[in-house]
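Figure 2 data, in text form.
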Amino acid sequence: MHKSQPNCCKNNPETSTRPRLITLLKICISLGLCLIALGIYLHNFNQTVEAMGVKGIIISALCVAFGMALSLPTKMYLTFLLVKREADKRGKAEH
C-alpha cells in the first residue's frame, strides 16, 4: 500500500519543481563562493595576475563580482523560502 499525498500537494506543479529549484540555487551559491575565492586568490597570491597589471586586477575583480552576483540573490531567495515554509508550518499548527 502506498502513501498518498495530502490534498494540498496533489497536482501542484510547485511542489514537484521546488526541490529542483532549491538544488539549482544551492549550486549557484557554491559556484558563486568558488568564484569569490578564486578572485581573492588571483588578487592576493597569483604572481601571473600581478605581472599583468591592470588587466590582472580586472580579471580578479570580475571573478569576485560574478561570484557575488551568483551567490547573494540566491541566498536571499532561499531565506525567503525558509521563512515562508516556517510561516506555513506555524499556520498549520494553529489550525
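Caption note: DSSP finds three helices and no strands in the chain.
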